[in-house]
Amino acid sequence: MLNAICLPLGMSRQDVVKMDELLKERFRLPKGGTLYRQGDAAEAVFGLRSGSIKTQIEDANGQVQITGFLLPGEVLGLDGLMNERQVSHAIALEDSEVCIIRLDEMDQLAPQLPSLQRQLRRLMSKEISRSHQLLLALGSLRSEQRLAAFLLNLSQRLQILGYSPYEFILRMSREEIGNFLGLTLETVSRLFSRFAREGLIRVQQREVHILDMSGLQTLSGTDCS
Amino acid sequence: MLNAICLPLGMSRQDVVKMDELLKERFRLPKGGTLYRQGDAAEAVFGLRSGSIKTQIEDANGQVQITGFLLPGEVLGLDGLMNERQVSHAIALEDSEVCIIRLDEMDQLAPQLPSLQRQLRRLMSKEISRSHQLLLALGSLRSEQRLAAFLLNLSQRLQILGYSPYEFILRMSREEIGNFLGLTLETVSRLFSRFAREGLIRVQQREVHILDMSGLQTLSGTDCS
DNA sequence: CGTTTGCTTGACCTACCTCAACTAGCGTGG
DNA sequence: CCACGCTAGTTGAGGTAGGTCAAGCAAACG
């Protein structure tokens, strides 16, 4: 049941049993703790079981870009499989728990578990298209649209996890949101205030209430799909 | 020899022979032709053998974002493996030739060819970190840095293919470059003129000569790595 | 050889950034 | 428990990078 959180999709009963082998290894990560750093050896991917984690890359000048905020059930470390080196940092936004999926173990199980390979492929593909979506946002949406889309995305993912899509706690700071969306913290703050003033949301510190979901969708340009 | 272009890295001799099976299917694509469209069934990935291709996504409002310019030896369609549906368009920038790698065929070969799976994994991982890099560019670089980085990246990839890194023909319009980098065509044009004025490059229409590689590197912020 | 398409350049504008001051929580130690 | 300091967030004023609009030009194309 809980295993489903790690690599959830389309597996037979006995496959899941075999999977158990892979997922036996767990790891607790305190708030602010680093799961891995850019340059580390990458011999595993990680399934987030609880908590939340940000991933970020850093260029030669120390310029940082957050590439994702991960929620339980999501998988990280997929970008490190190219050269078995991590190319990003993964930092816990709150106390978190991950399971470790070692690649060599996975490859040993592969012949008996073709669905596992396909599953990993699907996850990687999803991450590719997710970051392409993000490119669209950074490349061509205006600030208000970016933040609206960000909130809606978060809301949706929390709903999938069984939480209310209408009220939630942001695990990240304004600065982190801004960095992620290619904006400054001031702009993010102003937008929160403005959205609240316009009755779209209610916000108090990191607690967000979505009052007008379809209003946000209209704003983000996501609704007419 | 030419097969190496399709899935090049780290394979034994006999593995390559088996690979041949997979790659027998070729396809010619005229300039402007569409290899696949968003929504198409995705049962294969494609290796670009010659020419160049752009990939782009389109949102509900028709907003387009180019996510990549592909050169020979590079693989596309990796973002469609999530739901066996293409999530992007692939359009030829010039007459091109692709080889087709069907996923079901690949999965059949998988038991005999574990390296193939690993190779695909590496390619997908590379695409993930490439788009994360791109996020960094769109999120936090200034226009001049983006264009400089773009030119350097192109130059590098062409050099790997055996072409001169100092002079090449852009296969894409100013508008396409602008869209890719999150800028307008006017800004791109102005930057080309400015780079030329400053002696960094010589540019005449789509023909680019890089005169001061390290100058470009300094500008892009890539040099001090 | 005219038409179309892509590129350049200029003038102006605005969305977002920068800088700065102020405020609210929140943890810590006296 | 309060006072203090610290960090995160808010808000304002003003500046600027890059967008928009518009005109002109050069290649490419039928």
Automatic annotation (TrEMBL), chains A, B:
Record's InterPro entries? cNMP-bd_dom, cNMP-bd_dom_sf, Env_Response_Regulators, HTH_CRP, RmlC-like_jellyroll, Tscrpt_reg_HTH_Crp-type_CS, WH-like_DNA-bd_sf, WH_DNA-bd_sf
Using the record for this protein, list the coiled-coil segments as residue ranges, or answer none.
none
Q: Name one GO cellular component term.
A: cytosol
SUPFAM superfamilies from the xrefs?
cAMP-binding domain-like (SSF51206), Winged helix' DNA-binding domain (SSF46785)
Report keywords, A-Z.
Answer: DNA-binding, Transcription, Transcription regulation
- Identify the domain of life: Bacteria
What positions does the domain HTH crp-type occupy?
141-214
Residues forming the Cyclic nucleotide-binding domain are 7-104
The record's Pfam families line, in alphabetical order, gives:
cNMP_binding, HTH_Crp_2
UniProt protein name: Helix-turn-helix domain-containing protein
**Which species does the entry assign this protein to?**
Castellaniella ginsengisoli
Q: What is the lineage of its organism?
A: Bacteria, Pseudomonadati, Pseudomonadota, Betaproteobacteria, Burkholderiales
